[in-house]
Amino acid sequence: MAGNGKLRSDVKPGLEVDIVLKQDQRTGKTTRGIVKDLLTNSPQHPHGIKVRLQDGQVGRIKHIISGGTGG
InterPro entries in the record, alphabetically (predicted)? Predict the structure, then answer.
C-alpha cells in the first residue's frame, strides 16, 4: 500500500513512512520511522499528513513505505 501520504485515509498507526521534519523542509531530507499518532485532522493536505513517529519526531509524510504489522 505505498502512497504519497497526502490522504489521511491512507495513514494509520503502525505504518512505516518517510517524513520531512520541520527543520529539514528546506533541504527535503527525509527521516524513516513508524507512525504513532496522526496530527492532521483534515482529510487531505497538499504537503503531506503530519504525524508523530514512535520515537517522538514530528513531520509531514513524503512517502508510505509499508503497511506495518497492522495492515
Answer: DUF2196
